[in-house]
Amino acid sequence: MRYSGFRVFLEGLRGNSGWGPAWRKPDPQPAYDVIVIGGGGHGLSTAYYLARNHGITNVAVLEKGYLGSGNIGRNTTIVRANYFLPGNSEFYSHSLKLWEGLETELNYNVMHSQRGLINLFHSDGQRDAFARRGNAMLAQGDDAILLDRDGVREKLPYLDFEQTRFPIYGGLYHPRGGTARHDAVAWGYARGADRRGVDLIENCEVTGIAIEDGQVIGVQTTRGAIRANKVAMVVAGRSSQVASMAGIRLPIESHVLQAFVTEGLKPCIDHVVSFGMGHFYISQSDKGGLVFGGDLDFYASYAARGNLPMVEHVMEAGMTLMPMIGRAKVLRSWGGIMDMSPDGSPIIDKTPIEGLFINCGWNYGGFKAVPASGWCLAHLMATGEPHPVARRFRLDRFATGHILDEEGTGSQHNLH
Fold first, then answer.
1. 40 with 155, same domain?
2. Which of 116, 351, 372, 400 has the fewest CB neighbours in a 10 Å radius?
3. pTM
4. 260 φψ region: left (φ > 0), alpha (ψ -120 to 50), beta (else)
5. Tens digits of per-residue pLDDT, 246-279?
């Protein structure tokens, strides 16, 4: 079924009686060519690109809950390509290009809005650092504009420009950055994968990984054993737990990251805005809610909930940056389980077990990476070789020392 404006109009006349399910609800088969563990954005995009790019359609995506019930539905929806280091820069640039054609590709409205991202800076040192980052973005072929104080005031007049503690010196403007609706991305990839023959198996938790003579042969699940010669672990904050089923210890810590949304307000924030003197970022959704977040809770946890001190910390940062939001009522908050790597960059690689692949370590960058992550993991699984834009995301870089420390904060998971 292809969506179109004419089809919406026609179904309106017919009482919406002609719509079918967006995807099938199949029972698991005894065996597949490929199993993808994890029905979030990265897992669904991997299955879609396996079918779309490589013609591998005998694929099952196994999700312990419902599709999109994990981090893909627990984030602040930001899409950007403003990375600095070689390795990260070309990867996120590739991802942004995929985002820009995603709705046409999937025939699905993921509400991708390139409203622009502005990273504020508050000192001469920060200005120099953002100037370097902007030049790196331009060299990669992406867009970046260095704004002075007046340039920021013109675009963001509602900020507090009179404060002296964190004076606003300017900002790095990334016009192609923006947001997308997180759950719609999962639904779009799910529908696209299903249309190409992929089985999406919900309520099917993986309880074990079967290995013989160093080769993966399948998985055990709550719905029985399923065989496959290739298995991908794409489970974000649960990566260490699933990898342990195969006897693998990953350099990953799982931390909680909270996010918040207010009641619906009239449009007032046109861009995505990031505070340079505190880890705070904010945008406004199409429904009018202010969506914002801040730092990790700074302790390892598998609980998808946060703590009150971090709530206070995020609210303080928001009020410091834009006091106008003080009267907005917070509607709800949520916590996502972040898989934090030692250098703050992801892992897309083979594991020491033949046929077993890993996709993890997305830290704060998981949502914006969804298209390129699936594209690159599908390429690796189909060809046995890493995709050129993901060649530096090797698992062994922590042993060889070829790390990608984007923030320059060292090998401490919680600082990334």
1. no
2. 400
3. 0.96
4. beta
5. 999 999 999 999 999 999 999 999 999 999 988 8
